[in-house]
Specification:
elongated
C-alpha cells in the first residue's frame, strides 16, 4: 500500500476513506507518528491521519480525493451565506454519537451529577 494523502484529523480521513470505498477503491487510514498515543491522552491528535491505497489505484484515488477536498472547500466558503444548507450541498454530516461537543457535554454533565450526589451523601451521612 502507498500513502496518498494526510488528512488533518480522523473525521476527514474517514470521510475520504468512505469516498474512496464508494468508488470501489480499497483504502486504509492510520495515525501518523505517535498520533495514537496522543489521542489516548488528549482525545485528538495533531499529527494527522495518513490514507493508504493499493499502488495500482494511486492515480484514481488521488483524483477522487482532489475532487472531494475541492467540493468540501467550496461548501465551507458558502457556509455563512443566508439560506445555505450543508446537508443539501453534499457535505459530510457527523452522527450525534461521534460529535465531540456532545460527548464532552455528556461527560461534563455526568461528572457534575456525580459530584452533586457525592456532596449530598456526605451531608446526609
Amino acid at each position: 500500500m502507498i500513502k496518498i494523502y494526510t488528512a488533518a484529523d480522523e473525521m476527514e480521513a474517514m470521510a475520504l476513506s468512505d469516498a474512496l470505498k464508494a468508488q470501489g477503491i480499497e483504502a486504509c487510514t492510520f495515525s501518523e507518528g505517535s498520533g495514537d498515543y496522543v489521542k489516548i491522552v488528549w482525545g485528538m491528535s495533531m499529527k494527522g491521519n495518513g490514507i493508504y491505497v493499493q499502488e495500482e489505484d494511486e492515480k484514481s484515488a488521488a483524483e477522487i480525493i482532489k475532487q472531494h477536498t475541492a467540493r468540501t472547500m467550496a461548501d465551507s466558503r458558502h457556509a455563512g451565506e443566508p439560506g445555505y444548507d450543508a446537508d443539501m450541498a453534499g457535505a459530510v454530516t457527523v452522527p450525534w454519537y461521534r460529535n465531540r461537543m456532545i460527548a464532552a457535554r455528556a461527560v461534563l454533565g455526568w461528572l457534575a451529577v456525580m459530584t452533586l450526589l457525592l456532596c449530598i451523601f456526605q451531608i446526609l451521612f
